[in-house]
Amino acid sequence: MSGFFDIPSDLQHSWWGLIGLHLREALLPVLAGLLLALPLGQLCVRLRWLYAPVLWVTTVLYAIPSLAFFVVLIDYTGQTELTVMIPLTVYSLVVLVPAIVDAVRSVPQETLAAATAMGFGPVRRYLQVQLPIAVPAIIAGLRVATVSSISLVSVGTLIGNQGALGNLLHDATIYNRPELAWNAVITMAVLAMLADAALVLVRVLLTPWMPSGGSGGAGGGRRTTPKTAGARPPVPAAEPALKDAAR
Amino acid sequence: MNVLNFVSDFFSDSAHWQGYDGIPTRLSEHLGYTLEALAFAAAIGLPVGLITGHYGRGGNALSLIATAARALPTFGLLVLMTMLIGFGMLPVMIPLVTLAVPPILITTYEAMRSVDPSPVDAARGMGMAETRILLQVELPAALPLILGGLRSAAIQIVSTATIAAYVSLGGLGRYIIDGLYQRDYEKVVGGASLTAGMALATLAVFWAITKVAVSPGVRRSA
Question: What is the CATH number of domain A13-208?
C-alpha cells in the first residue's frame, strides 16, 4: 500500500484539505436543511392538511438520483460546489421534515396543557417544551441525513471534480491506483461514523433527563410509536405510506 | 420551463422507445437490478432482524452494524469494487445491497420489538412453539412496519441503481451518464424523471402489498 496518502497533484489539495472540503460540502447542506426543516415542520404541525402534499413532493425529490440532480443544476449554477450542495440540502430536508413533524406531534397533550397553564406563550412553549422533547427524534433524522450526505458528496466528482474525497475515486480509475479508492472509501466511512458519534454525543448532552442507554432506538429508527394516538384524529392514509419512504 | 420542455422532448422522440437503448429495455434492466439487490438485502436483513427482534437481544450490535454499513459511501464502494473485481454485476450489487440492508434490518428489529407483548405471552401460554409464535403471532403484527422498511430500501435502490451505468452496465442511469458526457440534458432529465416515476410506482406497489398482506385486524388497530 505504498502511496496511500500520495494525493495526485491535479486535485490541488492535501489529504487534510480534501477532508476539510468534504466536510464543508457535506455538512453545510445538512445545516441548511435543518434551518429550512424547522419552520417547514412547524408549519406542517400547525396546518395539518399541508403535511401530506409536502411529503409527496419531498418523496418525489428524494427519488431523483443525485447525479441527475447535479447535472440538471449545472445549467443554473455551473460546475461549482453549490451544484453539489443544493441537492444535498434537499435530501436532508426530506429526511428531517417527517422526523421533526412526528417528534413535535408526539409531545403529549398534557405536557402542552401544563406549559400553557404555566403561562407559556406559543413561541416559548415551542422553544422550551416541544423542541427539547423532540430533540432525540430530530437527532435521529440528522444522523441519517449527515451520513448519507457525506457519502453522496463523492458523486460530485462526475460533474467536474466537485466531489472532494470522491475526486480520489476518479483519480484512482484514471491512474489505476486502487489504494486511492481505498483511501477515499475508508476516509469517508470514518468521517461518517465520527459525525454520527458526534451527533449521539450532542443528543446525550442536550437531553440530560434521558437514560444514556441509547433510547434513541437502534440506528436511525425513530419508531417511538406514540401511544397517545387516540388523542388525535386518525391520520390520512397517505401519511404512513410515505413516512418511511421519505427517509 | 426549461426542464419540462426537456421532459416532453425526451418522451416524444420515438427513437427513445425502441432498440437496446430504448426506454422499455432500460426500464426492465433497472427493474432487474432493483429486484435482485432488494432480494439479496431482504435475504440478509429480514431473517437477522426477525430473530434478533424476537429474542430482543443484539440491538446495540445491530445498530452498530447498520451505522457502519450506512457510513460506507455507495459510489466509492462501486468504484473500489470495480477496480478490485472488474466489470460485472457483482461490483454493482455489493454497494446496492450495503445500501439496502440497514433500513430493512433496523426496521424489522424495531417492528418486532414494538409488537404488543400480551398476545405473544398468550400464545406462549397456549403452548405455541417459538417458531410458531415468531411466524404466526409476531410477524403478522409487525408486518406493516417491516413492509415500511422494505419500501424505503426499495426506493433508495431504485434511485441509486443509476450508478450501475457508471461502470458500463445498463439501467436508467445510462441516460443520465450518457447525457452528462454528451451534454444532452434532455436525456439526463428524461432518465431522472423515469427514475422518479419508478420510485413512485414502487410506493404504489408497496401500498398495494400492504393492503393485501396485512391482516384486517392489525390494520384496524394500527
Answer: 1.10.3720.10
